[in-house]
Amino acid sequence: MWSIALPGFGQYLNGKYIKGTVYLILEFLINIQANFNQLILLSFHGEIGNAIKHTDYKWLMFYPCLYFFSMWDAVKDAGGGKDPYSFLPYVFAGYFVTVGLIFSSKLMVFGVLLGPVWLPMLFVFPGIAVGIIIKKIINFF
């Protein structure tokens, strides 16, 4: 759960300090380079057009992979995820969030442009669902 707050925190909790520090440094690097905190602030204020304008997509595209990999890695290190396909919900969530980010400046939901914060967040849920479904199908056979 700590990795949801910030990549690397789950690794600190598990005693993996070097790995946690690497994830935390990567998180800060990507966050600063992508202007992510400014995007969040603008998005929360409903200024989606400004958020899109200030987004550095080249950097922000790294964030979903780092975020979900860090979560999976913390769960794995804590002894969870004994199923060999337990990584699939994390992989598909990262993939779907990245796709949501790619289309965030153009795709409208119910006639509303959600931008680089809200649309990728909405894509988490179908990503996790697809990952769980595929994991169940693989484990069934």
From TrEMBL:
Sorted UniProt keywords:
Membrane, Transmembrane, Transmembrane helix
**Bilayer-crossing regions:** 21-45, 57-75, 87-105, 117-134
What is the designated name of this protein?
A: Uncharacterized protein
Query: Top-down, what is the taxonomic lineage of the species of origin?
Result: Bacteria, Bacillati, Bacillota, Bacilli, Bacillales
